[in-house]
Amino acid sequence: MFIRFAKVNRRLIKAFSEVCKPITEMLKGYPKDVYWGREQEEVREELKKRFKMGAILSHFDLQRKKVVKTEVSNWVLRCVLSQFQG
Question: What sign for the dihedral angle of Cα 17, 23, 26, 32?
Answer without folding.
Answer: negative
